[in-house]
Amino acid sequence: MNKIEHIGIAVKNLEESNQLFASLFGKPHYKIEEVASEGVKTSFFKSGPNKIELLEATKEDSPIAKFIAKKGEGIHHIAFAVDDIKSEIARLKQEGFTVLNEQPKKGADNKLVAFLHPKTTNGVLIELCQDIK
């Protein structure tokens, strides 16, 4: 794993949260994107070299909707940049982590993504991200 790629925050209302985070960072989001397969609409902010991804559910049965129903708004995941997501998945499985995606899938921000189950990472959902070339 190379670095923290972004921190994902689940929100109920993307428009209101965009305003809040624009005030917090002193600048607007730089991208909004929908990932229909995951039932989520995302918005990205930069603060120095760091990125924050806001996630709003677009379907009632999406993972973000379920997360908010159970835990409320807040930090949803920490994403790490990797060079080779398939080899990283294999390495982490060998280390005993439970991988939620045997094969990476297309995520937001032009990335291939895979997730590690929070039960094997001290309660934190970990996302692996590789740039799509």
UniProtKB/TrEMBL annotation:
<dbReference type="InterPro" id="IPR051785">
    <property type="entry name" value="MMCE/EMCE_epimerase"/>
</dbReference>
<comment type="similarity">
    <text>Belongs to the methylmalonyl-CoA epimerase family.</text>
</comment>
<dbReference type="Pfam" id="PF13669">
    <property type="entry name" value="Glyoxalase_4"/>
</dbReference>
<keyword id="KW-0479">Metal-binding</keyword>
<protein>
    <submittedName>
        <fullName>Methylmalonyl-CoA epimerase</fullName>
        <ecNumber>5.1.99.1</ecNumber>
    </submittedName>
</protein>
<feature type="domain" description="VOC">
    <location>
        <begin position="3"/>
        <end position="131"/>
    </location>
</feature>
<dbReference type="InterPro" id="IPR017515">
    <property type="entry name" value="MeMalonyl-CoA_epimerase"/>
</dbReference>
<dbReference type="InterPro" id="IPR029068">
    <property type="entry name" value="Glyas_Bleomycin-R_OHBP_Dase"/>
</dbReference>
<dbReference type="InterPro" id="IPR037523">
    <property type="entry name" value="VOC_core"/>
</dbReference>
<dbReference type="GO" id="GO:0004493">
    <property type="term" value="F:methylmalonyl-CoA epimerase activity"/>
</dbReference>
<keyword id="KW-0413">Isomerase</keyword>
